Amino acid sequence: MSQLSAYTLPLKSLSLGKHEYDYHLDSDWFAQIEAPEIRTGDLLAKVVVNYNGREYEIKFQVEGKVQVPCDRCLADMDIAIDQSSRLVVKMGDEYVEESDEVLVIPESEGEWNIAWFLYEIIALALPLKRIHEPGQCDKAMSSKLKQHLAKRIDDEEDDDMLFDEDDFDEASDNQAEAATNPIWDALKNLKFED
Description:
Elements: E1 8-9, E2 17-25, H1 27-33, E3 40-51, E4 56-69, E5 76-92, E6 96-97, E7 102-106, E8 112-113, H2 115-125, H3 139-147, H4 170-178, H5 182-188
Parallel strand pairs: 5-7
Antiparallel strand pairs: 1-8, 2-3, 3-4, 4-5, 6-7
Helix pairs in contact: 3-4
């Protein structure tokens, strides 16, 4: 993380009061942090550190957009991010996360690199389902997906697998209907005793 040294807050050397830091998080930053989920982005992170003599209250505000793969078609899609977070940092003997909002760092170090924490703020702001708007998915991938989509007659439609008809072409529909396996057709004729 030596490339990310610009994201190190020199907490021990800060004077009392507020200190503001602005960071531009772009494609290079995501590459340096080796972000597992996010491919690229363009965000502004504003960090305000308020030191009261005992502890550091740190407020984070991250705004911008990131690019992630669509869960359905795997094509890149933009997601807007507007997330804030608050953390209290204290000095102690060793590194300890007391809670989600309280962090203890070794007093011997006296500084904290916030690069990974900024990434976590962004990653937690992403929706669980990342899917293009209806009709925006990659047509070729959507056609392949529909060909291999299992359908149940007795189940209600699953909201997770609903597709807009604009995502598929009619040729894939015709191919799926025409391609039946004779083994399955023979099994349909079996009769079972109750």
